[in-house]
Amino acid sequence: MSTLISFDIDGTLEIGDPPGAVTLEMVKAARAKGILTGSCSDRPMSAQRAIWEEHGIEYDFVCYKHLLADLKKQFDAENYYHVGDRDDLDRKYAIRAGFGFFWPDEAAENPLLL
Amino acid sequence: MTTGYAPPSMYRSREGMGVWEHRGKVAAVGVGHSPTERRWDENPETSVGAWSIMALRNAMADAGVTPNQVDGLVIVPVTTTGAFWPEDKALPQDVIEAFVQTDDPLDGIAKLSVDWLLKNMPELTGINYSLYAPVCMSNALNVAAQVVGDGLAHTVLVLKAWHNLQGRYYQGGQNAQDAIGGTSAMRSLWGAPACYGTALQFAEYCHKYGKNHDMMTPFIINSRRNGLMFPEGYWAQHRPEELTDEDYQLARWIAKPANLFDNDIPIMCAASYLFTTAERAKDMKQKPVYILNHVDSNAVPRGLTPTLDEVEAECALTGRKIYEGAGITAADLSFENMYDGFTQFHQFHIEGLGYRGIGFGDALDFYQTDISIEGPNPVSPSGGNIGSGRSRFWMHTDSIQQLQGRAGGRQITGVDAEIGVSGGPMPLGGNYTVWSATPD
Q1: Interchain CB distance below 8 Å, B252 and A64
Q2: DSSP, res B7
Q3: Which of A64, B73, B239, B328 has its CA 20 to 30 A from that of B144?
Q4: pLDDT of residue B327
Q5: Residue B187: pLDDT above 80?
Q6: How many independent structural domains does chain B possess?
């Protein structure tokens, strides 16, 4: 069962500003399970790529939050999830795109990332 | 010492006032900055008060002036436009008690008074004159220039500081209330982001002149590039990320046609300049930068949001006042550092200046040419707020540094830095300063 998880950065990932609950090890754990991962953030897309590369983590995509729905056109997965800390942005766009949504604390305890 | 706001008589608000009576007789010498940070971490040493003191001391040191030589202070007492101490949040007593207090517990935390500064800077023993300026550094510069010119003080420190608190910007204060006081209810549309008015004017502009949002791209890229060469700025210090065309053009709309990167990022920071007489400046540590003129725009819009026609008329008037009072023409400008907090009014400002001969409707085409610091037509060499974060003073620091030849990586090289102009914020409602490497 293929799964895609997109991560907001600030307030969500430990490397964000402010730092969030989701660690890079959790992202790696997800990838080790064959989960497609990347970021969906308001940070410039070039900066998102640089962040993953700086930390040596492979990624399948980067995009802006409001373009989350485009990931469904790019990737044919059975499950799509977005992890973020903003109700008015992350959760809103996730729901609009038909993604499942996790707050950072929820994601940090989810078996998909452990 | 009681400090009040600068009287209207200090501002040069009308066309037809002639050349400024103190043209070339007032000089900026010292520049002082604090570090920058995204939000306050609630420690005393990083409070807006602490960073204000740091900026003031840095400006004095930069000018080679001892504190007792300073006899005037002009500061902006309001240190935010959108970050307010929550009413239900306990005051940070440890921070308050780390300083000598005034009777306002938020003094030095979410606002600033001359009284608080003097209590916490005992070295400033010579202050005889002080004034408040409203809004931002651009206004304070006008006031300080007039203070020195009028002989009210001979060596003046000018200060503007910004605080930013945890949480969302523009979500607190009166925006969080069920009711709004005074005439604000007539002027402040509920629910609209801050940039909506400028976005509306920009949309009208694009429709009128056949332009589009993507034409702003070179200006944004150029501004961020220049900002990354501003070591005092936020992006250079914390997130040195260039922007690509794709980054800008695909960003989320905030108020279409203004997207995320058409808005500046709120930060904490403080800056101070030391102004003095041209005569005294000769003996100071840095090369004097002479003030040829200062201008005030105080137009009142006809409605809730100025129309494009009103914006263009006022920017043109501001341009005429700038040149009249300085005794120069547009052709004399080496560079412009007009305000860019919302990117989409920068072109109104430079069109009003007739910068490099452009007229209304020309700026976006102008942006497609060489607007770099290395070229013949540098646009916003400071990088402005877009390049370094929300301060409304990068433009002034850069103007002074360009003319002193110490703008570092940002130093314009395509033209000689001889005369520049900086100011803002809004096309209707702003203050502008004309700077020169020579007094005449």
Answers
A1: yes
A2: P
A3: B328
A4: 98
A5: no
A6: 1
Confidence at residue A82, expressed as pLDDT on a 0 to 100 scale = 98
The pLDDT tens digits of the residues spanning B65-99 come to 999 999 999 999 999 998 999 989 999 999 999 99
- Check A46 against B38: CB less than 8 A apart: no
Rounded Cα distance between B137 and B423, Å, is 9
Please state the ipTM of this predicted complex. Answer: 0.95
Predicted confidence at residue B321, as pLDDT, reads 98
The reply to whether B106 falls in a domain is yes
| Pair of tokens at residue B223 | 């501004």
Q: In 10 A of CB A106, how many CB atoms?
A: 12
Q: Check residue B268 and report its DSSP letter.
A: B
Res B303: pLDDT = 87
Rounded CA gap, B124 and A113, in Å? 58
User: Is residue B250 exposed (0-12), middle (13-18) or buried (19+ Cβ within 10 Å)?
Assistant: middle
| Any domain includes B408 | no
- For residue B253, give Cα distances in angstroms to A5, A42, A89, B117: 24, 11, 12, 41
Among A3, A2, A1, A14, CA closest to A104: A14
Q: Is residue B194 assigned to a domain?
A: no
A46 touches chain B (CB under 8 A): yes
Structural contact between residues A55 and A31, judged by C-beta atoms closer than 8 angstroms: no
Higher pLDDT, B174 or B57: B57
- Is A97 an interface residue toward B (CB < 8 Å)? no
Of A17, A43, A45, the CB nearest to B246: A45
Query: Domain range holding B99?
Result: 9-169+266-281
Q: Is residue B72 part of a domain?
A: yes
Whole-number Å distance between alpha carbons of B55 and B211: 41
The pTM of this model reads: 0.96
